[in-house]
From TrEMBL:
<dbReference type="Pfam" id="PF00378">
    <property type="entry name" value="ECH_1"/>
</dbReference>
<dbReference type="InterPro" id="IPR029045">
    <property type="entry name" value="ClpP/crotonase-like_dom_sf"/>
</dbReference>
<comment type="similarity">
    <text>Belongs to the enoyl-CoA hydratase/isomerase family.</text>
</comment>
<dbReference type="InterPro" id="IPR001753">
    <property type="entry name" value="Enoyl-CoA_hydra/iso"/>
</dbReference>
<keyword id="KW-0443">Lipid metabolism</keyword>
<keyword id="KW-0456">Lyase</keyword>
<protein>
    <submittedName>
        <fullName>Enoyl-CoA hydratase family protein</fullName>
    </submittedName>
</protein>
Amino acid sequence: MTVSTAHPATGAEGVRIVTVDHPPVNALPVQGWYDLAEAVRAAGRDPEVRCVVLAAAGRGFNAGVDIKELQRDPGNTALIGVNRACAAAFEAVYACEVPVVAAVRGFCLGGGVGLAGNADAIVAGEDAVFGLPELDRGALGAATHLARLVPQHLMRTLYYTARTVTAAELLAHGSVWRVVPVDELLDAAVELAAEIARKDGELLRLAKAALNGIDPVDVRRSYRFEQGFTFEASLSGTADRVRAGFGKEA
């Protein structure tokens, strides 16, 4: 599993790109979420950085948690670990000292919605799809973040059905800044990040703190509340029953 931080090839001043590369589908294990959290925090702490681009290599942006890691654990250690680790990664994006632009291509599912939903802006490839397959995976969570992307009733319908929405649909809702051809995605995300990074660094940090302070929903608290129901589903055996069918669909 690789989480890397790099300067843009274009040399956009004040921009850092944090990239996740965990084949085959960027479904992260517990340590991967923590590594991502630390990379985002470190980039935000760097006084030379004024905007972070969150990107991913491979087949898609993020497919959520590593379900197989949960299946290998007969107890609740892995579930507790992934609950805490996902919360840390989502919070790192939300609380990053500077704005975060998510560059989303391909699938953005489960934890991917948690990351993108907590970003300050989203630039998406034409192939991007967003959704929460949690009910099909014996889990709950990230409705907090999906609610930042779509209206309430649509969020609930998507959550209950585990359906996805396209980048074009999110563009119509105003939650995606631009939709571009996939081969132009990183450049478009860096372009937006560079425009943001041209502002005064200290003022940007104050602006980020101010905007987080006026959010109508405390995303950290609400997500941890959701996770309590994930744990309840696990203790009751419901999660194991549903998760047992993962990967066996016709």
